[in-house]
Design brief:
- Helix content is 24%, strand content 30%.
- The chain contains four helices and six strands, in the order ααβββαββαβ.
- It has a six-stranded mixed β-sheet, with helices on both faces.
- A hairpin with a 5-residue loop joins strand 2 and strand 3.
- The longest helix has 17 residues.
- The chain is globular and about 40 Å long.
Length: 156
């Protein structure tokens, strides 16, 4: 059984249930999801690569979205700073990231509803299904959906 301290560091415990061991979690120092608690905001899908203690590269996709970031690139800047701080404090040894695309999230916390849609002019459209799958790990009691709403406008 996981300790309360470990559960606190693993926000998805309530959704996925007990893990067999910490090896089941890829790059546990970096949460899979960090988005604002409510509102409509831009988001990016990022592929993160970090060497583990044996030097073997581990990868995972993460979702980040903040209303305080008016551009998708601002979100990437914020994530880059946070990852660099983790490296500087020796929480992770090194890291590489690649923005896979972006869009928007409409987070209605009172209705427990997340809608993923749109695209990023700078990074292109994220694979919203991948983003939804990641969001569902944290927001398992939410209705989480995606659409291509707004994507048709990118060619006008």
């Amino acid at each position: 059984m996981l300790s309360n301290l470990v559960r606190a560091r693993l926000p998805y415990y309530r959704c996925v249930g007990p893990l067999r061991n910490m090896a089941d979690v890829v790059i546990p120092q970096v949460p899979d999801v960090e988005i604002d608690p409510k509102g409509v905001f831009k988001y990016i899908l990022i592929k993160l690569t970090v060497p583990n203690t044996d030097g073997k590269l581990e990868e995972k996709n993460i979702v980040r979205g903040y209303a305080s970031c008016p551009y998708h690139s601002d979100i990437n800047d914020k994530v880059t700073e946070e990852l660099q701080n983790l490296k500087s404090s020796k929480v992770i040894r090194d890291w590489r990231s690649k923005v896979l695309g972006g869009g928007r999230i409409n987070h209605d916390s009172s209705a427990k509803d997340l809608k993923v849609y749109g695209y990023s002019q700078g990074y292109g459209k994220a694979d919203h299904q991948v983003a939804v799958d990641i969001l569902k790990k944290k927001y398992c009691d939410y209705n989480v959906t995606w659409s291509d709403e707004g994507v048709d406008d990118q060619n006008k």
